[in-house]
Design goal:
The chain has one helix and five strands, in the order H-E-E-E-E-E. By secondary structure, the chain is an alpha+beta fold. It has one domain. Strands 3-4-5 form a three-stranded antiparallel beta sheet, with no helix packed on it. The chain has a two-stranded antiparallel ribbon with strand order 1-2. Strand 4 and strand 5 form a beta hairpin.
Length: 81
């Protein structure tokens, strides 16, 4: 009888711990995640600087790693006489 009670307590305790959500702390802040991976995220900002436009792209992958890319595009007037 004691073995049955001990076995049921062990099984119930392990299943309750398995059902708990995980807590993730990363660049996106604190998140409560019931499972699975986070989706990649991308943020774009564009600013004008004289005759040039600078586009900044920030990417965060599902592991929280980030990459930063800056693209500078300048207009060529073509006023060479």
């Amino acid at each position: 009888m004691n073995r049955i009670i001990a076995l049921s307590v062990i099984l119930l305790g392990s299943s309750a711990a398995w059902g708990q959500p995980s807590i993730q702390i990363g660049p996106g802040g604190v998140q409560i995640d019931p499972g699975g991976r986070r989706e990649p995220r991308e943020e774009r900002t564009v600013r004008e600087e004289g005759a040039c436009r600078i586009t900044t792209i920030r990417r965060f992958d599902e592991y929280g790693r980030r990459t930063l890319r800056r693209i500078r595009e300048c207009d060529d007037d073509g006023d060479d006489d």
